Amino acid sequence: MSSCVRSSRALSPVMLPRLRLLHQTGYRLVGRGLWTSPRCLTVSGDSQLLPLPRQARVVICGGGIVGTSVAYHLARLGWTDIVLLEQGRLGAGTTRLCAGIVSVAKPISIECQMANYSSSLYQQLEEETGVKTGYVKTGSLCLAQNQDRFISLKRLASRLKVMGINCNIIKPKEVAKLHPLVNIHDLVGALHLPEDAVVSPPDVNHALAVASAGQGVQIMERTSVQQVLVEKGCVTAVETDRGSIKCEYFVSCAGQWAYELGQASETKVSVPLHGCEHFYLLTKPLQEPLPPKTPVVIDMDGRIYARPWQGGLLSGGFEKNPKPIFTEGRNQLEIQNMQEDWDHFEPMLSALLRRMPSLESAEIHQLVNCPESFTPDMRCLMGETPGVSGYYVLAGMNSSGLAFAGGAGKYLAEWMTYGYPTANVWPLDIKRFGNLQSSRTFLRHRVMEVMPLLYELKVPRWDFQTGRQLRTSPLYDRLDTQGARWMEKHGFERPKYFVPPGKDLLSLDQSKTFYKPDWFDIVGAEVKCCKEAVCVIDMSSFTKFELTSTGDQALELLQHLCANDLDVPVGHIVHTGMLNERGGYENDCSVVRLSKNSFFIISPTDQQVHCWSWIKKHMPNDPHLHLEDVSWKYTALNLIGPRAMDVLAELSYVSMTPDHFPSMFCKEMSVGYANGIRVMSMTHTGEPGFMLYIPIEYALHVYNEVMSVGQKYGIRNAGYYALRSLRIEKFFAFWGQDLDAFTTPLECGREFRVKFDKDTDFIGREALLQQRQDGVTRRFVMLVLEDHDTELDLWPWWGEPVYRNDQLAGTTTSSAYSYTLERHVCLGFVSPPLGPEGLPTAITPDFINRGDYEVDIAGQRYPAKAKLYPFSSLFTQQKRRKDDIELSNLQGK
Ligand SMILES: Cc1cc2nc3c(=O)[nH]c(=O)nc-3n(C[C@H](O)[C@H](O)[C@H](O)COP(=O)(O)OP(=O)(O)OC[C@H]3O[C@@H](n4cnc5c(N)ncnc54)[C@H](O)[C@@H]3O)c2cc1C
Questions:
Q1: If DSSP codes are grouped into helix, strand and coil, which group holds residue 729?
Q2: CA distances (Å), 280 to each of 94, 182, 678, in order?
Q3: What is the pLDDT of residues 198-231, one digit of tens each?
């Protein structure tokens, strides 16, 4: 770590050229650096001398804040035989130079929860261990320089209040009262979080280590993990520079080294993160020393943060042009010793002086540059890796590792103990990524975008701009020339909507809004075409698996995994959940019985790795049972609309009316010249139409034929925004948005998809039976906004609090404008207030139907009507029960 003393130098940027000349006179920061406590971090003396145990139940790699938190929480949950290995000294990695801010102002709820827990944990650690942690409840101020930022802070405030976190939206003059240095002239308001705190990170690290050691965790410093040994897909041992340790579990908390460590083993593990340099400045004590309880300032529009530090200030930021760290071929010490870079820091310094002009005369103590790891989607990486059983990861903290470590360590420990944490951590689950996000080039480009994004304003439906065009459908170029605008999911490009020729849209930057977006009419026209004629949407990104066997094994496995009955005649499609032991959705999919012993499984795009590992985990080791990921083999076209059957009938010479091809059936057909197209009568929207699964070599031909024949039926391209509007107005829940591992089919009105009496016992059956007996305590509802002006009011997105009779009753999970109802529709969960003993109470239809509902959008409440069923007028398709149809009608072709 490099740092320079800037004694008697003022902060003004005009000094920078001179300061740079002083570079050579800098001294290197050693040991604990800026955190002044004299105590050495080692827990057990010079532990290198201690012999390495030959065996342990769990080996944790990394003695930073994350590794020690995992050790602490595992020990608290009763685990014994835990060994923590650290290549240097405890807390010698990024934790050593962490800025020490523990704030709950995080973008998503699970992150707020983790930070909230960490804050309470760090507050009581001193009492628990006797180790001083430097905990000071300073509170923090998130500033808004413009109305859009203010809206996003108000949205955050609504969300935090739902979690019971104390926060207030305040005026600029109140900011001035709370902070003596802040220039408020360009501010429109702020969010005040009184419970936020600052700590000394190495001391918290030390306290966690002391507490863990007290509970029997063996901590070995100066021991470097070289590789993890794997046999038959399971962790068996860890090889270190001091010998090997046999173990059942390995937890990689190796921070920025976790990527390389994953690659170092013979069985490679993808840990998609990449290091970037991260800077902050320290001043000497100010003339009038800043009181220790002065609030932390987070000025995202200025890209800076600042906290009190030893009478002076510590201020860092997230610059627009970050510097990724290239680790290959460099030793670890070299990576840690990052050079200061005043030119690079200059924009942040200027922003700081704009925000706190009186700092002009402050003296610089030090410019710190320390590596931190960032991930492709700004969320940390948690959980068991998909390929290796027993290999867990907790890393990639995106500059919030201190704030997250307590909560994240707790959830990971719960996960390892009970099979799943007590909160929904899907947004952090390492299984949301696969190998494809682990290429070095992808990571490098993406982290260059991620680091500045941390402080950029996020509006509904923003997209990453880097790492694009990685996975595309064969129709990509064809659709692009027809005006497709793209979004990315799991590396796959998906059309959002199609800009008609001659229509100008705003540039990406200008189109950012919390209000009515510029694509409103375009998507409206696509929806209208889906309702009245026919549209085609390229949905090739869907996950697709084929499960086959020589005997009944495939059916037996699916009957065990799925809540619905899969023992259906060949050609039937079954919508079903794959549930966990608690009855929650691990996967929501459509399964097609292709033949007696083969099935086609269609899952959401981002479930590719998660669903694969779920099936694999439960699959018997039987050479006659085979699972294949065929996602890349098929292009999927969704033909939506009443004229879809006319288009397909013309192309296949087969009648496609509901009489001949009822809902939820699949037939292999020829379409144009192409054979072997899997045609399925479903659209994922509740509208009539068909999904076509086309072997990729035929994709362009089939698409061209469909578009050509479709002309006379008014066909046009459509995108996912139209699909979203259609499915939400029909009350269709989507996995990852509305459904998760904590939602059961009974809670979202899908009991009809659970076959309790089928021959095979399925995972989650017991839990569902119990829930049916006890009554569900929350319910998925549709909320139609009233008195909401689409032109002028803020639009809902997701995560908005829902009030019933003025009492908090739940939150929304997704929302869309319904062009049919000409209203906004939100989907979400509501529950009744807790019972007398603080226990959840069963929800009744009366509770739902009789309440006065409101949806809180950025602090403004809009009345809403809650519904348990969609408006029947939205369904135009003439339905026939598949049981009524003679199977013989469906064979052939
Ligand atoms: C300048 C800066 C300021 C920050 N400020 C804040 C803040 O104010 N608030 C906040 O919440 N977060 C902040 N962060 C982020 C936070 O510091 C990090 O996210 C956190 O410290 C990461 O902790 P960790 O345990 O994952 O990593 P580390 O602290 O880097 O620990 C990883 C450990 O693993 C060890 N290791 C690696 N490989 C091996 C191996 N093969 N064998 C044995 N040991 C190994 C390393 O030696 C290291 O000690 C900041 C980061 C930086 C860079």
A1: helix
A2: 13, 18, 57
A3: 999 999 999 999 999 999 999 999 999 999 999 9
Query: What tens digit of pLDDT does each residue of 357-396 get?
Result: 999 999 999 999 999 999 999 999 999 999 899 999 999 9
Question: Which token pair is 246?
Answer: 């046999």
Q: Tens of pLDDT along 810-846?
A: 999 999 999 999 999 999 999 999 988 889 999 999 9
Burial, 234: exposed, middle or buried (Cβ in 10 Å; 0-12, 13-18, 19+)? middle
Q: What is the pLDDT of residues 842-887, one digit of tens each?
A: 999 999 999 999 999 999 999 999 999 887 777 654 443 343 333 3
Please indicate whether residue 864, judged by its CB atom, sits closer than 6 Å to ligand 1. no
Is 141 in contact with 167 (CB distance < 8 Å)? no
Q: Which domains does the chain have, with CATH numbers?
A: 2-10+131-200+275-371 (3.30.9.10), 52-95+202-274+377-435 (3.50.50.60)
- Give the residue, by CA position, lying nearest to ligand 1 atom 31: 64
Q: Which of 35, 280, 397 to mutate to test the pocket of ligand 1 (most atoms within 8 A of CB)?
A: 397
d(CA 610, CA 115): 26
CB of 406 sitting under 6 A from ligand 1: no
Cα 45 to ligand 1 centre (Å): 22
Q: Based on the number of CB atoms within 10 Å of its own CB, is 33 exposed (0-12), middle (13-18) or buried (19 or more)?
A: middle
Asked if residue 167 has its Cβ within 6 Å of ligand 1, the reply is no
61 lines ligand 1 (CB under 6 A): yes
Backbone φ, ψ for residue 361 (5° rounding): -95, 5
pLDDT at site 888: 33
